[in-house]
Every structure is written in C-alpha cells, then in structure tokens.
Amino acid sequence: MNVFDFDNTIYDGETLVDFIMYYIKHDPKIWKYIPKLLYIYFKDTLHLFTIDEAIKAYAGFLEGYYVKKIDTAQEDVQKFWDENQHKIKPWYDEVRQEDDIIVSGTTDFILDEIMKRMGIKNYVGSSIDNKTGKFKRLCFLENKVKIFNEVFPNSHIDNFYTDSMNDKAMMDIADHVFFVTGDKIEQIK
C-alpha cells in the first residue's frame, strides 16, 4: 500500500498556514495572534520543535481563537477548500490507488472536507477537542508511526511519500521512500 504525508507532499503548501491566512483575510480578530503564529511557523519550518513543544506552542492559538470560531468552523473549512483545492498536486492522481492512506499533522477537522472531496477513505491527522481547543492527538514526528499503527493496525507500507525529514520515523517502517520537492519525486530508499 501507498502512504502519503499531506502538506507539501500532495498539497502544495502548509494547510494550517494557508488556513490561518484564510482567516487573516476574512477575520481581523486573528490579527492579535500573528506574532505568536509567525514564531510557531518559523520554529516549525526549521524543525526546532519536539512534540511537547509543538503541542504547547499551538495550544494558545487553538484555545484562544479556534474555540471561539467553532460555530462557523465547518462552513469556514468548506470555503477554505473552495479557495485552495486547486493546490492539490496533479501528480497524485497519476499514482493514486484505492487503498492509499494519508497520515498528516493537519487537524482532522480541516482534512475531513478535502478527503471527502478527493474520495479518500483512509486518513488520519491531528485531532482537537472542539470544546477546549486542546490537542487530543498530534500526528507529528514519531507520533505519526504510533498513530498510524493504532488506526491502521497490521498495515504494511510499500511506498511512503513525504517532503520532510520530520517523517523519518515513517520512512523507517516503509519498504520504499519517495521524497517530494514541488512536483519532483525522487526515490531515496
């Protein structure tokens, strides 16, 4: 079976960053979080987070902003994907198989809509408690393997596609690994 990371692999960009940019354009209340979000973005981009640090860093934004938006979140997600679905990379359709699995750090409330639109049944992402804004599950770094094995027990990864060495733990359990840079795909294992 083929397993794929989502952000910068199948999707051309970071979903959470693009989702925040969507809110920046549509809701000025998010602007007070911009300095913190920029700090998180650069630290994440430079791979300077541990899992615990990532949970703590994102928690302030999620608990302060997301919980207040929960009533409109589903509608916002649909509008976000209306604007951003075109960023799904065309090469994915060429390799896609019915049993593909997407394993992503993106939150499930954002993934649910695009997976439905793409007809992908097997996926897992990070998960947030809608009442508190706290992470129930962070699908990041070595946690991806743990969560993958919990959700898809006894699954064997023939081919794993990713854009980041953050996915080293997933690479280690795959037979073959393909590194994605833009639309260029290079087998590295």
Can you give me a brief rundown of this structure?
This protein has 8 helices and 7 strands; from the N terminus they run βαααααβαββαβαββ.
In terms of topology, how is this protein built?
Elements: E1 2-4, H1 15-26, H2 34-45, H3 51-69, H4 73-84, H5 91-95, E2 101-107, H6 108-118, E3 122-128, E4 135-137, H7 143-151, E5 157-162, H8 168-172, E6 174-181, E7 184-187
Parallel strand pairs: 1-2, 1-5, 2-3, 5-6
Antiparallel strand pairs: 3-4, 6-7
Pick out its properties:
189 residues; alpha/beta; 7-stranded mixed beta sheet; 8 helices; 45% helix; 20% strand; globular
β-sheet strand percentage = 15-25%
Q: Biggest sheet, in brief?
A: 7 strands, mixed
Q: Which class of secondary structure composition applies to the elements?
A: alpha/beta
Number of helices: 8
Total count of strands: 7
Q: H/E series, N to C?
A: EHHHHHEHEEHEHEE
Question: Could you characterize what this model shows?
Answer:
With 189 residues, the chain is α/β, with parallel strands linked by helices. The protein has helices at 15-26, 34-45, 51-69, 73-84, 91-95, 108-118, 143-151, 168-172, and strands at residues 2-4, 101-107, 122-128, 135-137, 157-162, 174-181, 184-187. It has a 7-stranded mixed β-sheet. The mean pLDDT is 88.
